[in-house]
From TrEMBL:
<dbReference type="InterPro" id="IPR058679">
    <property type="entry name" value="RlmG_N"/>
</dbReference>
<dbReference type="InterPro" id="IPR007848">
    <property type="entry name" value="Small_mtfrase_dom"/>
</dbReference>
<dbReference type="Pfam" id="PF05175">
    <property type="entry name" value="MTS"/>
</dbReference>
<keyword id="KW-0963">Cytoplasm</keyword>
<dbReference type="GO" id="GO:0008168">
    <property type="term" value="F:methyltransferase activity"/>
</dbReference>
<protein>
    <recommendedName>
        <fullName>Ribosomal RNA large subunit methyltransferase G</fullName>
        <ecNumber>2.1.1.174</ecNumber>
    </recommendedName>
</protein>
<keyword id="KW-0489">Methyltransferase</keyword>
<feature type="domain" description="RlmG N-terminal">
    <location>
        <begin position="3"/>
        <end position="181"/>
    </location>
</feature>
<dbReference type="InterPro" id="IPR029063">
    <property type="entry name" value="SAM-dependent_MTases_sf"/>
</dbReference>
<keyword id="KW-0949">S-adenosyl-L-methionine</keyword>
<comment type="similarity">
    <text>Belongs to the methyltransferase superfamily. RlmG family.</text>
</comment>
<dbReference type="InterPro" id="IPR017237">
    <property type="entry name" value="RLMG"/>
</dbReference>
<dbReference type="Pfam" id="PF26049">
    <property type="entry name" value="RLMG_N"/>
</dbReference>
<feature type="domain" description="Methyltransferase small">
    <location>
        <begin position="201"/>
        <end position="371"/>
    </location>
</feature>
<comment type="function">
    <text>Specifically methylates the guanine in position 1835 (m2G1835) of 23S rRNA.</text>
</comment>
<dbReference type="InterPro" id="IPR002052">
    <property type="entry name" value="DNA_methylase_N6_adenine_CS"/>
</dbReference>
<dbReference type="GO" id="GO:0032259">
    <property type="term" value="P:methylation"/>
</dbReference>
């Protein structure tokens, strides 16, 4: 396993979720570049440093002994990685405080290190929240691999923080360094809202929610085929996003019991608000988690899932496969997993390796809805 070696520390880091023989490492050249840039500034140990979107703890753990570090982001898996990698490197699991993106941090901060996220709306929301939270002379330093660094990221830094200087490229990574200067207070454009006609719902979507501006076409294909007549079944919406699958299912199944789970804190925040708006005080469990890892075995009758096909910029079906495995573990014998997926992903054959029966419930030219019986 390669070590992250910087002027601050030598660290052994694992990605989350863990996979046997994972070819990907838990840091990249952008992490190294950010840390080397900060080391050259010789910050006092009393400096307060906010680290945003640190996927596996590379930045926060490196800096922990050299500054007052606070981590924040929208990923439960990133928080889990931070805690596990702290312990892996001989530190207390809670020695770097973490603030979920659904909550607000308290400055002032002398430096802010940002890994530019895939969703620029999340970056925009984070930069807006930094208003009034930066110390005099503070810098906000954003890093990314060049292929994942859109021009709009620099525009957002300029708009909300101050003048931006782009670094030279190094190992295909680049930094954007913004020096804080007074800016007019900006109101956040998030959360956004959109309406469904059937059932009639208005859905709240915080900045990092998938398909924030409108219902995604996979979910649109899934909704008419959600199971009915579930009685008092225990149902989970796995990877719930804004909660639309679970909420629409709950409206059609008034006696069923629901759990909505996502690894995005902003998704969970959105799902909680949407459930309350649609279903009032009806009991529900909504939580941020590593899929169904925290669910008791054989504790569910039905799982609904529109699985993701990427983790940040890494594309593949590894997260979907893991969700299918988790669903099988959590379902009772005879329980069912319902999914929607692109035809070309071949989920039918993957599910057939885990479940005793797989049937096609519906299809469009692009999507299939499948039912897998345990």
């Amino acid at each position: 396993m390669p070590l992250l070696i910087t002027p601050f520390a030598e660290l052994e880091l694992l990605r989350q979720p863990e996979y046997a023989n994972d070819p990907l490492q838990a840091f990249d050249a952008a992490d190294e570049y950010l840390l080397e840039h900060l080391a050259a500034q010789a910050l006092p140990a009393t400096s307060r440093v906010l680290v945003l979107n640190d996927s596996f703890g590379a930045l926060a753990i490196s800096l922990r002994a050299h500054a007052q570090v606070l981590g924040s982001g929208d990923s439960y898996l990133a928080r889990l990685a931070l805690e596990k990698n702290l312990v892996r490197n001989g530190q207390a699991f809670d020695s770097v405080p973490f603030i979920a993106a659904s909550q607000h941090w308290q400055g002032p901060f002398d430096r802010v290190l940002v890994r530019v996220p895939k969703t620029l709306a999340l970056l925009e929301e984070q930069l807006i929240r930094l208003q009034g939270q930066l110390a005099p002379g503070a810098q906000v330093i954003a890093g990314a691999m060049i292929k994942h660094l859109p021009r709009a990221a620099g525009d957002l830094l300029e708009k909300y923080i101050g003048p931006v200087q782009a670094s030279l490229a190094r190992k295909k990574a680049r930094l954007l360094i913004a020096t804080a200067e007074p800016r007019a207070a900006a109101a956040s454009p998030y959360p956004t809202r959109y309406k469904l006609e059937q059932p009639p719902l208005e859905l709240v979507n915080h900045a990092n929610v998938f398909c924030r501006e409108g219902l995604d076409i996979g979910t649109r294909a899934f909704l008419p085929h959600l199971p009915r007549d579930l009685g008092d079944a225990r149902v989970a919406d796995l990877g719930c996003g804004n909660g639309v699958l679970g909420i629409v299912s709950a409206l059609a199944n008034p006696q069923a019991h629901y759990t909505l789970v996502d690894e995005s804190y902003m998704a969970v925040q959105s799902a909680e608000q949407n459930w309350q708006a649609a279903l009032g005080e009806r009991a529900v469990t909504v939580r941020a988690d590593d899929g169904l890892a925290g669910q008791a075995p054989q504790s569910l009758d039905v799982v609904l899932c529109n699985p993701p096909f990427h983790q940040q910029q890494v594309v593949g079906d590894f997260l979907a496969w893991r969700m299918f495995q988790q669903a099988r573990e959590a379902l009772v014998a005879g329980g069912a997993l319902y999914i929607v997926g692109n035809r070309h992903l071949g989920y039918h054959s993957k599910l057939a390796r885990l479940f005793r029966g797989v049937e096609q419930v519906a299809a469009t030219p692009k999507f299939v809805v499948l039912k897998a019986r345990k």
